[in-house]
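User: Fold this; tokens only.

Assistant: Input:
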Amino acid sequence: MLTVASDIEVLARFGRALADPIRCRLLLALREAPAYPSDLAEALGISRTRLSNHLACLRDCGLVVTVPDGRRTRYELADERLGSALDDLRSAVVAVESDRTCPDAETKGCC
């Protein structure tokens, strides 16, 4: 049972990050491989400004990190275990209720 405030805060941060479909797509893309913002914006079909806001949220939540690469900055998951956690969470949710959708799936906002 979770009773330690820090455990609850950690899970809440992860939940806030997953609350937005764009951030979910970003996390799934970065699970596959580190990427540059321009490539992510193109792959997700969103503006760089919008992407920047979502990446800032994921950085603030501690889920992604920046890696300097010459004059560019690459993004990657803060820990490779986050990729496994995303896979496990998706599999568990599908196993429990594969025919359900969340009524708030289009919720906007940040951490």
